[in-house]
Amino acid sequence: MPADSMSNSWLDRDAGPVVRPYAVTQGRVAPTGGEIDMMAFVVATPAETEPAGRLQPEHHAILAAAWEPIPVVELASTLDLSVGVVRVLLGDLRSAGLISMYEPPAASRPHDVDVLKAVVNGLRAL
Questions:
Q1: Are 101 and 41 within 8 A, CB to CB?
Q2: Structure confidence at residue 86 (pLDDT)
Q3: C-beta contacts of 54-61 below 8 A and 24+ residues apart
Q4: Secondary structure letter of residue 21 according to DSSP
Q5: How far apart are the C-alpha atoms of 58 and 88, rounded to whole Å?
Q6: Of the four, 26, 73, 110, 117, which is 20 to 30 A from 7 by CA?
Q7: 55 CB neighbour count, 10 Å cutoff
Q8: Looking at residue 34, what DSSP letter applies?
Q9: Domain spanning 28-125: which CATH class is it, in words?
């Protein structure tokens, strides 16, 4: 294989640079500071100081998209990243004090099994 084609093997002409999710999260699969619900709302907070670590382009994209409250799942869709990657990056931003999160009360309560069974039975009846 010629040297020129090997140097560009990481580039997809239609998609641009291809970066694997584990590279974006540096191999991490869980957010720092606890779990983050998919329905939680995220909003960027003004930073008084520059964070200690260098922010990745994905961190900056999250901050730009979260100037108004946005659910985690919509943020992932907007940025075309998986929810797992977004959760890890949100954990970084939360630890740095660059975002605030609000979890809707319904998301924090356990699901009522009877209601779920009634929904399933209703769907089966259709």
A1: yes
A2: 92
A3: 56/24, 56/89, 58/24, 58/85, 58/89, 59/89, 59/92, 59/93, 59/98
A4: H
A5: 11
A6: 26
A7: 17
A8: S
A9: mainly alpha
Q: Which amino acid is at 101?
A: M
Question: Which sign, positive or negative, has the C-alpha torsion 38, 40, 46, 52?
Answer: negative
* pLDDT, one tens digit for every residue, the chain (126 residues): 455 545 555 555 555 555 677 677 777 777 888 888 888 999 999 876 666 667 888 889 999 999 999 999 999 999 988 888 899 999 989 988 899 999 877 655 667 788 889 999 999 998
* Integer Rg of the chain from CA: 19
In what side-by-side order are the strands of the sheet with 70-71? 70-71, 41-44, 99-102
Q: Where are the domains of the chain?
A: 28-125
